[in-house]
Amino acid sequence: MKIGLVDSGIGLLAAAAALRRVRADADLVLASDPEGLPWGPRSADDVTARALDCARAAASYGLDALVVACNTASVHALPALRAAFEPDLPVVGTVPAIKPAAATHGTVAIWATPATTGSAYQRALIEEFGNGAEITEVPCPGLAAAVQSADGEAVAAAVAAAAELTPAGVGAVVLGCTHYELVGELISAAVPGAALYGSADAVAAQVLRRIGAAPYPGSLTAEDRSGTLDVLLNGRPSPLPDVALAYPEGVLLAAAPATA
């Protein structure tokens, strides 16, 4: 199977690594837009156009599924992507894990970009899936950019600032930006006792459901660990960016051979 993932930058690493963990034989195509990131402040039409460009570049590799591994793109571009590619190519979006968090915890904080925090989209998700939980929306200015550049000091400062806005004793923290999953351990340490809810594992499971595949049970043989990795930066075949290797997810993916 061959699965493409689209994002502005390295936020797609979390979902790609989750797919690699459940199917080490899957060929992955990572298509991002370093010339246009971040997508958060851009207009809906601009995000849609850029996501379509990335998706078309990935689809040229002959995909079985396409993952929109970005919350912003899932908000603005998912309908256009599905109109362009489905039903021939299943398109899986990324939604903050509000539903499972609120189903289990009475108090929930949603960490998201300033553009997403308080948005009609996020408020609609809270209304639909909040389950009566006390939910606090927490803006995280600068966190995605700091993760993207692997700036440890900036990441720590942004995480600390968001933790200050998070109610003490909150039961769960929902990560409303895929970049945040790459620093999940730091976020957990900053909000002790809170369960962390990302989207990567759920996205990987949904991809397998959409294409009728099953995860590998147990360990894999060397022959099964055959999945390749191709990286497209603004449509151009490229090595995995060095910044990706600052995170365990990037190191996991870097071990795969490229097809070209």
TrEMBL record:
InterPro entries assigned to the protein according to its UniProt record, in alphabetical order: Asp/Glu/hydantoin_racemase, Asp/Glu_race, Asp/Glu_racemase_AS_1
Keywords: Isomerase
A Pfam family annotated for this UniProt entry: Asp_Glu_race
Domain of life: Bacteria
UniProt KW Oxidoreductase keyword: no
Protein name: Aspartate/glutamate racemase family protein
Species assigned in the record: Actinacidiphila acidipaludis
